[in-house]
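pinned: reference chain
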Amino acid sequence: MKTSAALLATLLLAAAGPAAPAEPAIDRETLTRPLPGLSADDTERFLRGRSLFRQSWVIAPARDHEVDGLGPLYNRLACISCHAKNGRGGAPSRPEERMQSMLVRLSVPGRKPGEAPRAHPVYGDQLNEEGIPGIPGEGRVQIRWRTHTVRLADGTRVELREPRTTFVELAYGKLGPVLTSLRVSPHVAGLGLLDAVPASALEAMAAEAQPDGIRGSVNRVADRRTGALAVGRFGLKSNMPNLRQQIAGAFVGDMSITSELFPDENCTPAQTTCRRAPHGGKPELSAAQLDDITFYVAHLAPPPRRNDTAPEVVRGAAAFAGFGCAACHRPTLSSGDSPQYPALAHREFAPYTDLLLHDMGPRLADGRPDHLAGGRQWRTAPLWGLGALAAINEDVGFLHDGRARNIEEAILWHGGEAEKARQRYAGAPAERRRALIAFLQSL
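pinned: its structure tokens
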């Protein structure tokens, strides 16, 4: 475990050293660029994967059998629909507004600890709002916001909001008792490096003693390729063990595009018309296509740092350490061996996460367990890219359900293991709080 002095030195070096010859430009393409130095063959593969990421899938049967098989039930037509410019989604501001870059997980109570969530017997594990012609979408979610105001130590008032969901237009009967969890789409840059962090490193971090009663844990989930249990690292509750499975899970969950990892359509036994619909092949996403899109996402360059030598940013790095944020949002991680993707091997990078599960308290709890992750636990969100999102996406929401409209609101929702860090932020002078925000916006 690093000492406080060593950790502060790490943060200050990350914020202040060595100066770049020119400040990296931030534009709408910032999160779409590849890691530098790809070979010609790898660049071609990257571009093939990018095309698939941006491709709108069509209903089967279709002339272009490479991209047919959408649905029968689905949420969006393409990966890019939820991850515009590879960025982050937001939540609807009004009940009549449709969800464009978020979804609702579903499950029913009663599973045993350590097992996957039990899918709803009629609606499955995710509400699919859309359906192909002749097959109605499952329904729609209306979000209404309830607000309250918190007062910081210097008298500053901050309005916070939390969502209240209502299910309407349900096409397959009442939901009945159900556990739900709203999820906003995250940005996808830098994920290959996170995938290359050794599982042993995550387990070692989980075993470390931390201040403020912080204790991270790993989730353990099934690797669908090997059938063995593996350390989870992707998904908001670390319920996916690797990037390839995360991508395949999104294809079947969001578009009902099957793959070798998820060979079944997302039709439940109760949805008989859905089960009789034509498909685009078995599987619809070929192994080669899945390999290409995984290569693309794995080789997206991490978001660039900006303004890292600015005095306020340097002061913000010190505040980040002093408040205790770095106990979970670790400044640096290192990748290990990566025989499949050599460009990702043995690199130190700065995602500001430990990829571990932490109890975030009752206010952020969704009450929905997922394997070893409890209803109050969430994976530490990587912070890199925070400062770029405003230039990339029109509507950005922070935290798992987009409730936070800005970074300060996200901080003030923290609880549980992060409660003492939140209290230090709320009790700090305005100048120190502004410095912390400036530091986070430089990431």
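why pinned: Residues 413 and 419 are 9 Å apart (CA to CA). The longest helix spans residues 40-54.
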